[in-house]
Design brief:
Among the domains are: 22-182 and 203-236, paralog of FGE (formylglycine-generating enzyme) (Alpha-Beta Complex); 252-336, Immunoglobulin-like (Sandwich), CATH 2.60.40. 8% of the residues lie in helices and 30% in strands. It contains seven helices and 50 strands. Strands 1-2-5-11-6 form a five-stranded antiparallel sheet. A four-stranded mixed sheet has the order 9-8-7-10, covered by helices on one side. The longest helix has 15 residues, at 85-99. Residues 1-19 have low confidence and may be disordered.
């Protein structure tokens, strides 16, 4: 290549790589709102000879037209055909791993941009001239697939376009990606794999009319189709770039009225104090988007777009800006209808079955970095209930509310008349980025511990569930489950069978290999709580397991017990001020020992207590939490009640055991809604917010979480966007159907903090909360 030729191409935004078969195309605008980032595109469609390297290296099945696994004679340099998207994905995976670079199929916009070669009004890749003699197509409409040997030509048989790209029209169709938005796409049964959802083709072929040669005209074929006129070419990320990469940084986009859009995103552990953020907006998710921030946002992970165009749907993403101005990998796109009415509901999960209650458990089922939901449907099987004739079920949903699958779990008799005895946790057991669902599961009269595929509900593996030792109390008993890192490296499944007496704890590896069993039949009998709590209390990286008022070492041996039987509330936190050590706050139900206790989490030493021995008013501590809700008292505050299920005689303690208020007004729980250093208090229905002043709970001026105006809100957690809590509520849709709603705060916040899900204990709590046992409150604390 002459120097002059190189300069001319560079001036047009193109650099040819003489060392290989790719052309670098610089970033540019195809049309208004449809910008593409720079990318390298293969000069020609992938050939048989190139595909053979992959087949030989991996043993992957050869294309159908190869004879005994060999390329047909004389066709080494012909485009590979009779391949589908699954084949292309396998090839790309091999190439990416082999060369440690990112290769993929071009997007539809990238293909059109490359085909037009800087000529916005071009009809064909070569301009406006008629296609005869410039591409391989079917001029008369009489070619058939059976004649492919006659008509398919070697790649590059016709002159390239102005950017040095061959066969951008004709010879074989080429697969392109559109990244269809699953939130608004037509439902396709059991197809959630992005590869399988794509079906677009570009460029026309030897078997199609000249119309399909036009720039911007596309065809389609199912992802599984293998035809003699379909091939593919590659694009790859330019050296030193990061925009082909995706980072699992959750972004939410919510309409706030007046055509404005509120954005919120996570701050990740790899972000530094110097990291800022740029926001990009696009009209379709296969575009690069336009940057709408004039300078990096330095001190917040919120942004309000006040100039959103009046279109049906927009997409937003963010890119971190490192010191020196270099942009890091972008997040995934978040879609929104900018003209919709103001709403702080970012997810709605509507179960197919409308009878009974629904308990949500959150986890990333599809590996896109956004939390999906699995609902446990009780179908009328509640504590001490009669048999409704249908089992407890699961229904899984994507983050945008689409039902993935439903599966029956356990019938009435085998869950002792309560859906609470069908524990469910959602966690990535094998480290592939996609969460599995772990649950009790019944086949015939046998009940198993089962691991289910998160995307399909299919049973991956199972082992018999440990039989109940006894249920003499006829208490509907309790069965729980959790996840722990017993060896500090890999997740283990912890199950508990029995609660008020003779608890049995079992630990299993991810493949359901039994690790140990602990039988709480003697001094620790009856210690169990309403959930299995997990914490690394000694800082060795290995988790201890909390059997209520008894704690087990990672190897299943007894660590300590306070021998006070059954607590209703367990909170393991740094409750005392000025210490790095953990304490455990207990609200104990058992009548003999009923009361509040603060215990050293490492040793089991009781630091302070007030119970029935001290005050006969204590009959049953039933509700409670530990949280930092009052600036006027150092450390955390703790709540419980003396009067059991009545829950009117509520007591708020300071960290040193002093009573701050009694009676404390009922019906309040902590929430990190405004981003303040201390937590607000939220009513149980999410329609009121207050702050504890030391003497009362006073209402605060803030948009309330639950915009429905009614319902029950049993969970608060950092599920999406910035570090503030989302609020999860059960309520009814406008159509009157019951659903689970996730609400976020859409008020901008001029500060930022690390996402709570960066903390392992927080993720373990989310995996088990509500599904593995009763709902609990977890307050993240920086290390």
């Amino acid at each position: 290549m002459s120097f002059l030729f190189f300069v001319l191409f560079a001036a047009m935004g193109v650099v040819l790589h003489a060392a290989d078969d790719f052309v670098l195309l610089q970033s540019g605008m195809l049309r208004d709102g449809q910008r593409v980032d720079s990318f390298e595109m293969q000069k020609r469609p992938l050939t048989n000879a190139e595909y053979k390297l992959f087949v030989d290296a991996t043993g992957y099945a050869a294309p159908l037209h190869w004879e005994n696994g060999r390329i047909p004679a004389g066709m080494d340099n012909h485009p590979v055909i009779f391949v589908n998207r699954i084949d292309a994905a396998a090839y790309l995976k091999w190439r990416n791993e082999k060369e440690r670079r990112i290769y993929r199929l071009p997007t539809a916009l990238e293909f059109e941009y490359a085909a037009r070669a800087g000529e916005a009004e071009a009809t064909y890749p070569w301009g406006r001239a008629a296609p005869a003699g410039k591409a391989n197509f079917d001029p008369k409409g009489d070619r058939t697939f059976g004649e492919w040997r006659t008509y398919v030509k070697p790649a590059g048989s016709y002159p390239p376009n102005k950017w040095g790209l061959y066969d951008m029209a004709g010879n074989v169709w080429q697969m392109v990606d559109r990244y269809p938005d699953p939130a608004i796409s037509r439902f396709v049964y059991r197809i959630e794999n992005p590869t399988e959802r794509e079906n677009q083709l570009a460029g026309g072929s030897w078997a199609r009319a000249s119309y399909y040669l036009r720039c911007g005209v596309f065809g389609g074929a199912s992802s599984g189709i293998r035809h003699p006129d379909i091939g593919f070419r590659l694009v790859r990320e330019p050296e030193g770039s990061t925009h082909f990469q995706r980072i699992p940084r959750r972004v939410i986009a919510a309409p706030i009225g007046g055509g404005k859009v509120f954005l919120s995103w996570q701050l990740l552990p790899e972000d530094t104090a110097a990291t800022g953020f740029h926001v990009y907006r696009a009209r379709r998710p296969d575009a690069a988007g336009d940057r709408i921030t004039s300078s990096p946002i330095p001190n917040s992970t919120n942004f309000t777009d006040t100039s959103a165009p009046a279109v049906n749907r927009l997409y937003y993403r963010v890119r971190p800006v490192r010191a020196g101005g270099q942009e890091g990998p972008p997040s995934e796109w978040a879609g929104v209808e900018p003209g919709a009415n103001r709403s702080n509901a970012i997810a709605v999960f509507e179960p197919t079955v409308q009878e009974g209650g629904a308990v949500p458990i959150f986890g990333d089922l599809n590996g896109d970095g956004v939390l999906d939901a699995v609902l446990r449907l009780d179908n009328g099987i509640r504590e001490m209930s009669r048999d409704p004739g249908v089992p407890v079920e699961l229904e899984a949903f994507t983050s945008y509310g689409r039902s993935l699958w439903r599966r029956p779990l356990v019938g009435h008799d085998h869950c002792f008349g309560s859906a609470n005895n069908v524990p469910v946790v959602v966690y990535d057991l094998d480290g592939d980025g996609k969460a599995e669902v772990v649950s009790r599961y019944q086949e015939g009269e046998q009940v198993y511990l089962a691991v289910l595929d998160g995307m399909s509900g299919r049973v991956l593996r199972k082992t018999p569930w440990t039989e109940m030792a006894s249920d003499f109390a006829r208490s509907s008993t309790r069965i729980h489950m959790s996840i722990a890192y017993l060896n500090g490296k890999t997740p283990a499944i912890i199950t508990q069978t029995g609660l008020y007496e003779n608890e049995i704890f079992d630990a299993y590896g991810p493949e359901l290999n039994k690790l140990w069993q602990y039988r709480s039949f003697a001094e620790t009998n009856g210690s169990g709580s309403h959930h299995i709590d997990i914490a690394d209390v000694d800082g060795d990286g290995k988790d201890e397991v909390f059997n209520g008022t008894t704690v087990l070492n990672p190897d299943g041996t007894l660590r300590w017990s306070i021998y006070r039987e059954h607590p209703d509330i367990v909170a393991i936190k740094r409750i005392l001020p000025g210490t790095k050590e953990r304490q455990v706050y207990y609200a104990v139900e058992s009548s003999v020992h009923a009361g509040a206790y603060l215990v050293d989490a490492k040793t089991g030493k009781i630091l302070w207590k007030t119970n029935r021995e001290d005050d006969p008013r204590w009959s049953h501590a039933h509700i409670g939490w530990a949280s930092e809700v009052f600036r006027g008292s150092p450390g955390m505050e703790m709540l419980t009640n003396r009067d059991g299920h009545l829950a009117k005689d509520q007591v708020l303690f300071a960290s040193d055991g002093r009573i701050l208020m009694n009676p404390f007004p009922p019906g309040w729980k902590p929430v990190h809604w405004t981003g303040d250093e201390t937590r607000e208090l939220m009513s149980n229905d999410g329609t009121r917010l207050g702050r504890f002043t030391g003497k009362a709970v006073e209402a605060i001026e803030a948009a309330v979480p639950n915009e429905l105006g009614s319902g029950s809100c049993n969970m608060v957690a950092d599920l999406a966007g910035d570090y503030r809590d989302e609020v999860v509520c059960a309520g009814k849709t406008n159509a009157g159907r019951r659903a689970v709603f996730v609400f976020t705060n859409v008020e901008p916040l001029a500060k930022r903090d690390l996402t709570r899900t960066a903390n392992r204990e927080y993720r373990l709590w989310m995996a088990r909360n509500q599904g593995g046992g009763y709902a609990s409150y977890f307050e993240w604390q920086p290390e």
